[in-house]
Design brief:
This is GNAT family N-acetyltransferase. By secondary structure, the chain is α+β, with helices and mostly antiparallel strands. Helix content is 30%, strand content 32%.
């Protein structure tokens, strides 16, 4: 089982995971923890929303990375 994130701009254009440091994870919790640590950096690099994938199947999303200020 492999967990990963699909990255998109705020308008829904795909962002190459290699350009923003995306990775594959062996557990959902690891993927979610990683996102919790790096979401600000991803947003600074143009990622506006993410989807969690399990073996390529969408689990949830879109989840916005814009901070509520």
């Amino acid at each position: 089982m492999s967990w990963s994130w699909r990255f998109e701009t705020a308008t829904g254009a795909l962002v190459d995971p290699g350009e923003v440091g995306g990775a594959d994870f062996s557990a959902q919790g690891d993927a979610e923890s990683w996102l919790g640590e790096v979401w600000r950096d991803l947003a600074d690099r143009g990622v506006g929303q993410v989807y969690l994938l399990e073996d390529g199947r969408e689990v949830y999303g879109p989840m916005s990375l814009s901070s509520a200020e």
